[in-house]
Amino acid sequence: MNRKKKINQTLKQKAKKANAKLHSSNKPKYISKAERAAQAIAAETEIAQPVEQSAELVANENA
Q1: Distant-in-sequence, close-in-space partners of 39: CB < 8 Å, separation ≥ 6
Q2: pLDDT given for residue 8 in this prediction
Q3: Cα 38 to Cα 40: distance, rounded to the nearest angstrom
Q4: What is the torsional sign of CA 13, 16, 22, 23?
Q5: Band of the pLDDT at 45, cuts 50, 70, 90?
Q6: What is the per-residue pLDDT for 28?
Q7: How far apart are CA 4 and CA 24, in angstroms?
Q8: CB burial readout 20-55, b (16+ within 10 A) else e
Q9: Predicted confidence (pLDDT) at residue 3 exceeds the cutoff of 80
Q10: How far is CA 42 from CA 11, 29, 30, 45, in A?
Q11: Residues 13, 17, 22, CA angle at the centre, nearest 5°?
Q12: What is the spatial distance between Cα 12 and Cα 4, in angstroms, rounded to a whole number?
């Protein structure tokens, strides 16, 4: 009886671990405050640069 219980227990553990690997968490990855600030600055510069570049392209096409 004890041997059967032990075998079933190990099989259940393996099945539980395999099932846990399939279902990942919906929780977003943690981003530190410093990284969030750096990303915000990068996004601001990214937004500003295309506007300036498009203005230069229009000026060059008109010339």
Answers
A1: 31
A2: 97
A3: 5
A4: negative
A5: confident
A6: 87
A7: 32
A8: eeeeeeeeeeeeeeeeeeeeeeeeeeeeeeeeeeee
A9: yes
A10: 50, 19, 19, 5
A11: 150
A12: 12
Q: Which two tokens stand for residue 24?
A: 């990942």
Q: How many residues does the chain have?
A: 63
**Token output for 38:** 């750096």
Give residue for tokens 């393996």: 14
Residues 6+ apart with CB under 8 A from 31: 39
Distances (CA, A) of 13 to 19, 21, 33: 10, 13, 38
Q: Indicate if the pLDDT at residue 53 is higher than 80.
A: no
